[in-house]
Write a structure and sequence with these properties.
Helix content is about 70%, strand content about 5%. It is mostly helical.
């Protein structure tokens, strides 16, 4: 029972962090129709900035700077690279998606050169400390991941619901032409969406690199891409779906890792592909995802 509870808590913590990343995928897709393959590299950028700045600035200030810089890079990438090529035209989204692959290669190559084979500490205040929650011993970083992610995700949902930007984003996602005719400033709305996604990625990097992970390494961005099937599972354009998909992926990964010995028949390393296996199984039953609706096609 203790093993199950421990595994369950780890799964919830992983799911909470994946939700930050998956929410970034969904926000960008809703705002621009672009599948951002550079999201993992932006996450790595945020983590790298926190790692190199925390000695001089302290953890909180370094994290604040990394969040702002990553948000600015993501916004600039959209405004001056993607929108410059195709404007806010949603029909250019396919080309812009391919462009993000090139951006990912450029950022990842530079950061990999800088990080090399090192493991970077982000200087988080939780370190390797643990706490006892009943019969379960939990890393403090896992508790912080759940608490911080829940607060931030609630804030993002409040932005969607109660701000003019959120209303504009939802209007543009429903019908971009109608939103434009109603005076919605599409260029600014989607750029701010990219900024928000970048900020969420930088924050997620802290918890992906925190204990019990060894630290930030050049492959941390690839780990973040496990949130990609979570976003697809949820329906790609559904923020609540991204949240549900992330929790499902996190729990799946933790359960497979926790009961690896009982699942040896599925082969070693099954935990690495388990999120994608779950995604395929769900999409076979619900091709539009857990919260996705049928798209209306204008002919």
């Amino acid at each position: 029972m203790t093993t199950f509870l421990d595994t369950l808590f780890n799964g919830l913590a992983l799911g909470a962090v994946y939700a930050l990343v998956a929410l970034g995928f969904v926000i960008i897709f809703k705002a621009s129709g672009v599948m951002n393959f550079a999201h993992g590299s932006l996450l790595l950028l945020g983590g790298y900035l926190t790692a190199v700045l925390h000695d001089d600035l302290g953890f909180a200030a370094a994290l604040a700077v990394s969040v702002l810089v990553t948000a600015a890079v993501a916004g600039a990438m959209d405004r001056f690279l993607l929108q410059a090529g195709g404007g806010a035209d949603p029909h250019a989204a396919h080309v812009q998606t391919i462009v993000t692959i090139g951006v990912d290669i450029v950022i990842l190559t530079d950061l990999s050169r800088r990080i090399g084979g090192d493991l970077l500490s982000l200087g988080d205040p939780w370190g390797d400390s643990v706490s006892a929650l009943g019969p379960v011993t939990v890393a403090d970083s896992r508790i912080a991941a759940i608490v911080v992610s829940a607060a931030v995700i609630a804030g993002v949902f409040a932005l969607f619901r109660y701000t003019s930007w959120g209303l504009s984003l939802r209007a543009a996602a429903e019908d971009v032409e109608a939103a434009s005719l109603m005076g919605v400033r599409l260029v600014r709305v989607r750029m701010l969406a990219w900024c928000l996604a970048g900020a969420l990625a930088a924050l997620a990097a802290v918890f992906l690199a925190a204990f019990p992970a060894p630290g930030l390494e050049r492959t941390t961005g690839q780990i973040a891409l496990k949130a990609f099937p979570a976003a697809i599972l949820g329906g790609m354009a559904s923020p609540p779906g991204a949240l549900a998909g992330s929790l499902l992926i996190g729990l799946t990964e933790a359960l497979v890792a926790g009961y690896q010995s009982e699942l040896h028949v599925l082969g070693e390393g099954f935990g690495d592909v388990a999120p994608y296996a779950v995604m395929v199984l769900v999409l076979l039953v619900r091709p539009t995802g857990l919260f996705g609706g049928k798209a209306a096609v204008r002919v």
